[in-house]
Q: What sequence folds into this?
């Protein structure tokens, strides 16, 4: 493990300044027309992103993707963090059910974690239902019982995707947004999101 990890750490020391200077960001383009709108939110928690989908009954589901050891096993040492960045590690799919939206609600308090920024989109309801169905089927068919993290406020199952710096929570969020009919261009690795003709919603 150490023989593999050390060279990759050296690669990080070389590439990290370049990545920081490059200002990696992703630009989201909204659909021109939406026949049957349903609200979706992209939430940014530090450098980590999750999505909040509104179901047909107006209840909401938040989905998140992360490194299993870091988010579920709570292994947050420097070695664990380095492994999560540079080695293909076990991914975790998280799920949280939220009550329907209400006037003046404090969403941050409801989900139980900080929200740095959030964006609200209107997308086709059928695409939201299809994505919810796909994600819920993963939970239903998982051979591992969901693990509830009281610290993360999420129920986790193993993801079918490994977690790395090249596919982290922001890349997964971008793929979910694409499944909802949004166009996402650029590299979202650091959670630097831009939305054409839209500003983040105050939390």
A:
């Amino acid at each position: 493990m150490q023989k593999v990890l050390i060279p990759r750490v050296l690669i990080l020391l070389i590439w990290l300044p370049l990545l920081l200077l490059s200002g990696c960001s992703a630009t989201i383009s909204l659909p021109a027309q939406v026949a049957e709108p349903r609200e979706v939110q992209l939430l940014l928690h530090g450098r980590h992103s999750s999505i909040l989908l509104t179901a047909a009954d107006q209840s909401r589901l938040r989905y998140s993707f992360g490194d299993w050891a870091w988010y579920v096993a709570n292994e947050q040492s420097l070695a664990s963090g380095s492994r999560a960045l540079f080695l293909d590690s076990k991914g975790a799919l998280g799920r949280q059910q939220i009550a329907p939206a209400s006037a003046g609600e404090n969403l941050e308090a409801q989900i139980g974690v900080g929200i740095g920024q959030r964006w609200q989109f209107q997308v086709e309801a059928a695409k939201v239902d299809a994505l919810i169905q796909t994600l819920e089927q993963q939970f239903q068919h998982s051979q591992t019982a969901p693990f509830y993290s009281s610290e993360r406020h999420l129920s986790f199952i193993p993801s079918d995707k490994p977690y790395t710096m090249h596919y982290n929570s922001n890349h997964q969020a971008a793929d979910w947004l694409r499944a909802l009919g949004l166009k996402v261009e650029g590299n979202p690795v650091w959670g630097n999101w831009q939305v054409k003709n839209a500003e983040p919603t105050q939390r």
Q: What stands out?
A: The beta strands are 26-29, 37-45, 48-54, 60-67, 91-98, 117-124, 147-149, 154-158, 183-186, 193-195.
